[in-house]
Amino acid sequence: MRRGLASYGALIALLGWLLSGCGTGDAGKTTHSDSGAQPVVVSPTSGSAMKVGENDLVFAASLSPAKVPVVARPFLWVSSPAVNARMNASKTGELGALTVSYPSGYLTPAQMRHAYGVDQIVGDGTGQTIAIVNAYGSPTIQSDLAAFSTAAGLPQANLTIAYQGGGPPSSSDAGWALETSLDVEWAHAIAPGANLLLVVAQGPYGSDLLEAESIAISQGAKQVSNSWGGGEFSGQSSYDSYFSAAGVTVFAASGDNGSGVSWPAISSAIVSVGGTHLSVDRSGNVLSESGWSDSGGGLSDYLPIPSYQSANSAVQAVCGSKRGNPDVSYNGDPNSGVPVYMTTPYYGQTGWFGLGGTSAGSPQWAAICAIANQARVAAGASTINGANNLLYTFNQGAFRDITAGSNGGFNAAAGYDLVTGLGSPTADTINALVS
Predict the structure, then answer these.
(1) Does residue 326 have a cis bond before it (omega within 30 degrees)?
(2) CA-to-CA distance for 13 and 187, rounded, in angstroms?
(3) Nearest Cα to Cα of residue 172 among 57, 84, 328, 42
(4) Which of 21, 60, 200, 300 has its CA 20 to 30 A from that of 153?
């Protein structure tokens, strides 16, 4: 197993730490990979300007929330340039890279859907809208999503882009563009019938991102995904209203630097998604799943335990009097990551990238929620009103209980733990969300 980053990666990480506010969040922590993967850092660079398209929505800068003391970064790990080069060189056949077996075990949409029981459920998210909130967006997301869909044998997606702050950002950021591509493409991979709404914030600042959150909910999304975060802070609960609306569930990645918590995932109004290492066979049958070493997780320094956790005695035994996270888990280790297609240059590379991070799990959980909500609506029921209110009432057998692995501060264990939460989804989880 390899540790550490290439020298240029370390330099970029240092620059990203300086640009993102030096001690804000966990951006300044030393990060690492078990396989040569590199964590994305926020390093704004001039690039192609975003443009308003035919179906895009523009929201004038108006009642932005008070300044939030967070400069967010995407929770994303990128495989080494050498691995990504092999991925692009290995493309064969009409369906491109997704028809071959990837280096390092990258999973196809079909394998992922089977691993988590999605293919056992009738439904594809039709009639539901999944909102993705990110800073900067990607100037090539429409064409990249189309190419990804063709490669994966998926139907073409219905994607709308909404811009916070009076118009498109004046430039793009390669790291956030890659995050945007991951989130949009893999939400579509799991729920290919759902409408996609990408809400682009002007920058990685908490105030902009919260306003983007409000836009997502105002446009009718019943499931919202956030694959970014920063450090928690005193008074953070005062912003919970941005993640709370009737019939809406908001998801967030728990973080990619091992034990510790981040905002907004730690919010009691959010379903926090931790990371695992998932091993499957060629058909997607699960061979094993364990807690990922870099999965965020821990106890809040500020928030009391919410009622949905305290009502579960086994969970309260782990959390005590504090809000614990993550709530659930999903594949996140770049060793078992996913292929993503992007033509916006990322350090000179375009095409296929191998990606991981807890950011991969958040949009896919949102897609699972969309499939459950599709069935609920068809049965005449309301959409889920904050999934944590249901998830913590399920029998533990509804989840794939993750009992191995550690995030450096906590160990995965039977039942709820501070690495993988309640566990990973199964067909039983989705059926329980429907009923």
Answers:
(1) yes
(2) 28
(3) 42
(4) 200
